[in-house]
Amino acid sequence: MQALRISARRCCRHPRSDLAARPLSTVPSSPSPLPWFLDPSEVPLAPKSPKREASRPTPPHLRSSASEPLPPLPASLPADSPIVLLHAALQGSPHLEPGMLRVRTPIPTAPGPPLPDAPPKGRRKRGRTYAGEGVHDHSGGIWSWIVVAQVKEGTEKRGAIESVVRVVRKSLLTATPPLPLPPNSKRRVDDGWAMMDAGEFAVHIVSKGAREKFFPDSAREW
Questions:
Q1: Contact 59, 159 (CB under 8 A)
Q2: Omega before 177 cis (within 30°)?
């Protein structure tokens, strides 16, 4: 009985107040000392933390577009032209390649060879060559201006061309007066080239491969 009373008194004793309070955090604030039974010379060094891998490159659609300035608009372009409003709207698009937004006049195309002169044949005199009237001296193109915008490389199949098309349609439909545009096509662009006919001018949204194929530097003055 006396042994039980002594053990009960020990259990009821209050904890010592001079002991340091144990921190609640499980992360040690400083490296703990080695236990007394370990030799510091025999303890292996802690492995160094592996170096952080190099950061991934910035996606093409998030790269800064201020590295290369855009060429100025042609001096002969009227100040009230819808192209000026469209050019200002496309400047802030993150999908366009820096410096790859151009506005210029179409390159004139030489007229083709004349149709061969074929005499009428048969009893009903059919098959005679008739070239038409009023088109002999016309050597210009369909549009007065063309706008060529190239999206960033690698984004043409990720919706970049469709996004730029939406910006173009919104800019032209909100102009004063709004331009008549063809109905919006919901079909996805797979060949890297989208063209919009705006009446007096045409807008081409192309990928890098399509620009190099259809708008080569030597022939199109890119």
A1: no
A2: yes
E strand or H helix at 22: none
Handedness of CA 161, 167, 170, 175 (dihedral sign): negative
For 45: left if phi > 0, alpha if psi spans -120 to 50, otherwise beta; the answer is beta
Q: How confident is the model at residue 199 (pLDDT cuts 50, 70, 90)?
A: confident
| Integer angstrom CA distances of residue 27 from 30, 33, 44, 48 | 9, 15, 21, 18
State the pLDDT confidence band at 54, using cuts at 50, 70 and 90.
low
Rounded Cα distance between 108 and 43, Å, is 83
Helix residue ranges, H only, 30-136 = 82-91
**147 burial level (CB within 10 Å; 0-12, 13-18, 19+):** buried
Kindly state the helix (H) or strand (E) to which residue 189 belongs, with its residue range: none
